[in-house]
Write a structure and sequence with these properties.
Layout: H1 2-36, H2 57-64, H3 68-99, H4 103-116, H5 124-134, H6 140-164, H7 169-176, H8 181-189, H9 194-210, H10 215-218, H11 227-232, H12 242-275
Keywords: Cell membrane, Membrane, Transmembrane, Transmembrane helix, Transport
Family: Belongs to the binding-protein-dependent transport system permease family.
Protein name: Carbohydrate ABC transporter permease
Length: about 280
Amino acid sequence: MNAVLSRRAVGLAVGAFVLLVVVIQLLPFYVALTTSLKPKTDLSSQWSFPLSEPFWGNFVTAVTDGGILRAMGNSVLVASVSTVLVCVIGAFAAYPLARRPTAYNRGILAINVGLMMVPALSILVPLYSMLAQMGALNTYWGVILVMVATSLPISIFLYASFMRSLPISVEEAAMIDGANIFQTLWLVVIPMLKPVTATVGILTGVGVWNEYALSGYILTSPETRTIAPAIASFFSMQSSNLPAAAAASLLAVIPVVIAYLFLQKYFVRGLVGAEK
């Protein structure tokens, strides 16, 4: 009897903790929603909804003055191309590291893990100088190059970890049937990488979509800037427009939520496979 009560108490405690975490995670969205529905002159608490009718002008301001739709289009382009490149390059680079555990490959994988620990802002000055010399500032290909380079280490790590959990007998059977290494990789291994590819795709896509630290310096033109710099444009030394920024943030999160809802089962399977 005591054991049953103890298990119930533990279950209730875990459920309460999970509920608390969910509430804490949803609080920023609640505040953003209440703020976006009030005019700039409304000085009431951000925790309360507007007392009168909701003010939708902030969403209009986000679209017209902030150019949020153009910024979302730029983010879709940068995130899509970056994600595809990271998935393709990461899978091909991880295959020999996973299937040929030589001392050299183990060293390369260790260096790759080390690169995951390097803060991106620590290389901002030489990176900016190099991009300026290449004429890559305020260009899509320049920011895509940077996003791919900074996202590849985690991609290679996840792909290599997932590939090590796959049975090698399937690849050996394909080679016995006459397939070369490239055919084996493309026709046998790649189709089995759907879960981890979804994981890498979501992590890369969301990371690029939300990235501000580097893109804020690389993309300064209103025509090329992405979501985060566009939202930051509502704040300046002279003035700020918090309600419009909140409205722009809510608009920016919609594509990410939709993508995750469709890919969440693959995301979890990819993470579980990478931990094996």
